[in-house]
Amino acid sequence: MIVYFHRNPKTYEIFYVGIASESGRVQRPYKRDNRNKYWQHYVNKHGGFVVQLVHKGLTIEDACYWEQWYIKLLGKKINGGQLVNLADGGETNAGYTHTQKQRILSSERMKVRGTGHMMTKECREKAIKKISASLKGKLIGEKNPNYGKRHKWSNESRERQSAIQKARWAPIKKIVIKKERADYEESRLLNLKKSWGVKVLNTITGEVFQTIVDAANSIGMKKDTLRMKLNGKNPNNTSFIILQHDLACVS
């Protein structure tokens, strides 16, 4: 199971929290259908949405827990929060497998109705003919409810309809979750250690300092100033030099 966010494409504000199965419905976070009217209104108004996968590889229980936790943390708009979710989370049929009996009954219902994605080719042809026959001649000319209205649209109405259509077909963007702060700090410290952790020799006293920082502190000089002198970017008017085997560590 996965937990995902939908974010505003301009401000990246989280406006929806959901869960989905990784096996059969992993595409669910990127779908626009079967969303509530508040979600549809928000996406049409702001020109699309950004998908962020927050948790992966969870059990159904853990996914429901995190969905409830995020919804409670951010709050629903109907309660004064920022999410367009209507439910409190934790209820899902994602990952549910229908029994063979349920599949057969569902298939029979679809065949009788002549609608749905599970019907046979014959049923689809029958449904198309039935719909075409029922609409034939009913929406032509003056019988069409929009007859003669198109040229009367104001510029504001045209721009609004244009924005709605652009939002409906706007490409879905993805964002990459930034590294955890702890990983970032560890990487930063390693880079600093590589830059400053070289041995420095005082050619007058013969004393060896373990880092540039220690050498700079011994004469009251800023560490950046001493590093620039030692790596040759500024004239070195000090008695310090970097030990030969550590020269490659300084940039």
Describe what this molecule looks like in 3D.
This protein is 39% helix and 12% strand. The chain is α+β, with helices and mostly antiparallel strands and 251 residues long. The chain folds into 2 domains: 1-95 and 157-177, no CATH class; 185-249. Strands 2-1-3-4 form a 4-stranded mixed sheet, covered by helices on one side. It has a 3-stranded antiparallel sheet with strand order 6-5-7. The chain is elongated.
List the helices and strands and how they pair.
Blueprint: E1 2-7, E2 14-20, H1 37-46, E3 50-55, H2 60-74, H3 100-113, H4 121-135, H5 155-168, E4 173-174, H6 181-196, E5 200-202, E6 208-209, H7 212-218, H8 223-230, E7 240-242
Parallel strand pairs: 3-4
Antiparallel strand pairs: 1-2, 1-3, 5-6, 5-7
Observed structural traits:
disordered C terminus, 251 residues, alpha+beta, four-stranded mixed beta sheet, three-stranded antiparallel beta sheet
